[in-house]
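Dear support,

We are seeing what looks like truncated structure output for some complexes. This example has two components. We would appreciate it if you could run it in full and send us the complete token output so we can diff it against ours.
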Amino acid sequence: MNSTSTPIIEVHQVHKSFKDVHAVQGVDLAIQKGEYVALLGPNGAGKTTLVEMIEGIQQPDAGDIKVKGLNWKQHQDQLHRVIGLSLQETRFIDKLSVRETLHLFSSFYKLPKSRVREVLELVRLKEKAKAFVVNLSGGQRQRLALGISLLNQPEVLLLDEPTTGLDPTARRELWEILAHLKTAYQTTMILTTHYMEEADYLCDRIVILDQGKVLAKGTLQKLLSENNLGEVIDFGLNAPGNHLEIPPLGDHEKILWKEDGMSAHLLVNDIVTYLPELLESVKRQGYHFTSLECRKMTLDDLFISMTGRRLGQ
Amino acid sequence: MNQILNLISIQYKEFFRVPGILFWTLLFPVLMASGLGVAFTGQSEQIQHVALISTPDSSNAALDAFLEGAQPEELQAGTALGKAVEHPDLGKTQYYFHPTDWQGAERMMKRGEVALVLKAGESLQYHFDPANPEAQLTYLQLQALIIAPNRQYALGTIRPMTRVGTRYVDFLIPGLLAMGIMMSCMWGISYSLIDKRSKKLLRRMVATPMSKRGFLFSHFVSRLSLSIIEASLLVGFSHFIFDIQIQGDVLALIGLFISGNMAFTGIAVFVSSKTDNPQIGNGLINAVVMPMMVMSGIFFSYHNFPDVMVSIIQGLPLTMLADGIRGVFIEGAGFETTGLPSLILASIGVVFFFLGEKIYKWY
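Here is the complete output from our reference environment:
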């Protein structure tokens, strides 16, 4: 990927407010052709608002958005043909079959019937072509929504929480389809999610949003290494730990106590060095562990370290 | 063009694949017409219940004479004296006199079991609410039957009007046709659009190059064709059962029919332009259809309203449509009568359609 070429999606200093909520606050984003980017954040972080502004569904109060150098005010028709999208919770017509639903949307783009057959194959719904929408499972409905977004062979795909509420198998099926699109068609994609493993599996870059602002962006490796917090110790104590003295923490290391005051989330550079000192310190002060877990850091930990909250909250 | 045809075709599919919609849209109007038509057309037996307060000390010779031969009958409300009066033209009226005291009579009035209390005595006393037309009718009938049993119709003759065009059912069917158009458009278009908005389907559709106007227009075409099926069923049924015929210009009727569909499609698009909540949509649609159903003379003439109201009622789209259709059906009217209302209805449709389109909330 050539990082110096003109980005296919450019978002510059975009703001959006609803009544007294400042949903998006000065977001900048540049996405290259063929790149898969995840917008990660908890509910209310501003992910959907940002994506809907890129989709042209909402207008920004301030700032610029361009897709392939085009903007929504002047190039609406062209942008409709460049972008494919899947909204959160769209419910299609219950008593139309999968094929009829795809035919309807393909007629809006004036596409030949053969395109519907191709898309049915692409989203693995050929067997369900005659089934009514009302009889589809959650995963099949999401694949239909994805199929509709792929009808016009979009260069840019914008998916808003495409796997929310799906079981792991259905989620994995959708991931495989999306991964295939990347290799086969060099599609560019923005995906909003609050599943870190989804962002990790599918996307080249991750943008973490919270309260309308970008907290961090980059590859997973970059995000983790930039924060210099490689490892996590989760522990529980037999008594409130407000008087517990732990071994000194480095510059980027920190401890986050949970609400019960008896368990904590400790972010450290190196477990091998830190853990023996922690065990010794806890024992010396008359505490003992009720639980202890050591692991590598994940996006969720990174989010907690930045906001003090979990992604799913 | 292909997308408009596709949009129309999905509406047919939605319609014909749900048996409930088929029943309520196509069969229910026919059932309603048959029920009301039979109820108001057949010479069925009239039944009148009267509370009777009478003691051995307070008998009345004329009343006793009238009740001579009356048989006690067991009814749900208790034992009553049954007296049937036959009339060659008015049919049979069955009177039930419920012997009771004043307290019992009051209770029966409160429960709606009787509309009138007859107290025997040297002079008969009729107790009833003068504002109740049914009670007034019973009073006048009894007064005539008891006081002058052999002279009650001597001052004139009754000539029953049964000629096609003058019966209640002739008045009713054109009204039902007009109401069917209104209901079909208001519920079939408004509710369906609000439902699509609440499911975020509208939002998804307009994120494509779909023609928004074409999408709204497709609802007019599909509803018009469905209205034609509904109206044909109703007219066909009325023709075979009640011998109803279109006496005026069929082309004028078609023009009126299309204009009516235009008017209510426009209003339906306007009504559905903002809300994404089906319950609010329900309220909005009812707020439009209910006043017109009550006032526009569908079931009964609106000429019973005060004069000041009548001129307002005549300006309502449903009144214009029902009066126009009635004119063609039973007065033999043509374009000279239906032209202006057709034009006004079509204009209402165009204005509301474009207003609705202008303020339409797609997202």
